[in-house]
Amino acid sequence: MSPPVRTARKRHYLMCRPTFFAVDYAINPWMDPTRPVDPARAMRQWEHLVDLYRELGHTVSLVEPRPDLPDMVFAANAASVVDNRVLVSRFKYPERAAEARAYRQWFSTRAFRRVATAGHVNEGQGDILPAGRILLAGTGFRTEPAAHAEVQALLGLPVVTLTLTDPRFYHLDTALTVLGDTEVMYYPGAFDPAGRATLNALFPDALLARREEAEIFALNSVSDGCNVVLPAAAERLASRLEDRGFRPIGVEMTEFRKAGGGAKCCTLDLHGCVKSDRIRLHRGAVASNGPRQAA
Ligand code: ARG
């Protein structure tokens, strides 16, 4: 049987240049402040990712990096965004807490319908991943279970809670990639038995990854429904994706692995907000995105 024909959906991504990226502290098992990051290499890898997204036809917006926030490059953690509604994150560790304000400023000076700030610890798209009309929500290390109810209330989509158990896979997006509205790939060993059962019930045909694939951040991949941007070294997964009609594109994000991140961590998907006429990119625009008024 020939694989299904996949259609790429245009995306709008928010990213942050790794100008000040460094591993200065350790808040996950990948981070070792004695092991230096190569800033030039990190910049090349990140710029290549941005160029690739633009070549694929996606829009990339940039938030200004801050010198005191070395993890700010991991834009995925900044917010949950669905249908023009934004829930700005509340970070677990004080080292990253001020990122919320920097990103909130970006959101509140654009025309989103609603911008709220999380009351509970919530690390945005690191843990809350839209899959069609549901939100897959990780907990166990960062985002608190109470945040899941808050996300559901604010973003208006049902939340499926998944508990992570392996500290190396501390955010949901290190253990699971949403490939399309009803398709995911994940590493089962990162979840508790209830989480595995839930994933198996929701996605019985999911592509299952191996531990060594999860360890190179192959599940920290970015899909537009057709193109799947994943680590170049994840060759087995790439060929499984091809079998299913996806178009895998290998990238090197190895410098970011030193901080516990990959391509997805650097990419906040402004889910459902792609139409550029609905996001005013000039400062001070806070107009509502409701039905357009006749001019
Ligand atoms: N050093 C960052 C942290 O520990 C890495 C964040 C990775 N982001 C992600 N979406 N998984 O918070």
Short description:
With 295 residues, this protein is α/β, with parallel strands linked by helices. The protein has helices spanning 39-55, 94-97, 99-108, 145-155, 193-202, 211-215, 235-243, 254-257; strands at 12-16, 59-63, 79-82, 85-88, 114-117, 128-131, 134-139, 159-163, 176-180, 183-186, 207-208, 222-223, 227-231, 247-251, 268-269.
Spatial arrangement of strands, main beta sheet: 2-1-15
List the ions, cofactors and other small molecules found in this model: arginine
Model regions low in confidence, pLDDT < 50 over at least 5 residues: 276-295
Radius of gyration: 18 Å
Walk me through the structure:
It is a single chain. It contains eight helices and 15 strands. The protein is 24% helix and 21% strand. With 295 residues, it is an alpha/beta fold. It has a single domain, classed as 5-stranded Propeller (L-arginine/glycine Amidinotransferase, Chain A), CATH 3.75.10.10. A hairpin with a 2-residue loop joins β6 and β7. It is globular and about 50 Å long. The C terminus is likely disordered. Arginine binds next to loops.
List its traits.
disordered C terminus; binds arginine; globular; 295 residues; L-arginine/glycine Amidinotransferase, Chain A; alpha/beta
